UniProtKB/TrEMBL annotation:
Keyword terms, alphabetized: Membrane, Transmembrane, Transmembrane helix
Membrane-spanning segments: 36-58, 78-95, 121-144, 159-183
Keyword Transmembrane helix: yes
Recorded superkingdom: Bacteria
Official protein name in the record: Uncharacterized protein
Length: 206
C-alpha cells in the first residue's frame, strides 16, 4: 500500500488538509477493498467450475451403477445437488457483499462490510473442509459396504479391515491438510489484505 503510505505521510506534514486527506485515504481503501471482494467472488466461481469439470471427467455415478444399487445413485445425486446448492448460496452472498461494498458511503459501513465478508469467507472455507471430511468418510463406507470385491477382502480378514480404516484416516488428514493449505494461501492472503484495510479505516474513523 505505497500510495496510502504516501498519503498518510503528507497528512501528518500538513494537518490543514485533514478532511481532504481522510477522504482520499477512504476512497483508496474503498477501491482496494471492493477489488479484493470482487477477486474473492471470481475465485469462488472458478473453483466451483473446476470441481464441476472434475466431477464430469471422473463420473462416480457410473461406479455406483455397476454395483446395481439404485439407492446409491439417488443418494449420490441428492448429496451432490445439496452441496452445489449450498455453494451457490455462498457465491450469491459473495456477490451481495461485493455489491454492498461498492455502494457504501461511510467509513463505518465499509468496515462492517469488510467484517461481514471475512466471516462469510471463513464459513465457506470451513464448510468445504467439512464436506471433504464427510465425503471421504462416506466414500470409504459405501465402498467397503457395497463393493463385492472389497467386502470379500475384509469379510474374513480383520487385519485388512483395520488397514482400510488407517488408510481412510490418513486420506482424510492428508486431503484436509492440503485443502486447508490451499484455502490458506488463496483466500487467506486476500483476507489478510482486507483486514489491513479494516485497520486503516479504524484509524481514520477515530
Amino acid at each position: 500500500m505505497e500510495e496510502l503510505d504516501l498519503l498518510k505521510k503528507d497528512w501528518k506534514k500538513n494537518q490543514n488538509f485533514r478532511e481532504v486527506s481522510e477522504k482520499e485515504i477512504y476512497t483508496m481503501l474503498h477501491k482496494k477493498s471492493s477489488s479484493i471482494v470482487k477477486l474473492i467472488l471470481i475465485i469462488s466461481v472458478l473453483e466451483v467450475a473446476f470441481w464441476f469439470l472434475i466431477g464430469f471427467l471422473f463420473d462416480s455415478e457410473q461406479y455406483f451403477k455397476k454395483l446395481n444399487n439404485p439407492y446409491l445413485v439417488d443418494f449420490f445425486n441428492v448429496f451432490t445437488i445439496i452441496n452445489y446448492l449450498v455453494i451457490a448460496v455462498f457465491i450469491y452472498i459473495f456477490y451481495k457483499n461485493y455489491k454492498n461494498i461498492c455502494v457504501v458511503s461511510s467509513t463505518k459501513n465499509l468496515m462492517k462490510s469488510i467484517i461481514k465478508t471475512r466471516k462469510t469467507v471463513n464459513y465457506y472455507i470451513w464448510y468445504n473442509l467439512g464436506m471433504i471430511i464427510i465425503g471421504t468418510i462416506l466414500g470409504f463406507a459405501l465402498a467397503f459396504n457395497t463393493d463385492p470385491n472389497l467386502m470379500k477382502l475384509t469379510e474374513h480378514n480383520d487385519s485388512v479391515f483395520y488397514i482400510a480404516l488407517i488408510i481412510c484416516f490418513v486420506s482424510i488428514v492428508v486431503m484436509v491438510g492440503l485443502f486447508w493449505l490451499f484455502y490458506k494461501l488463496l483466500y487467506g492472503i486476500l483476507l489478510k489484505k482486507l483486514f489491513k484495510n479494516y485497520n486503516e479505516l479504524k484509524k481514520i474513523d477515530l
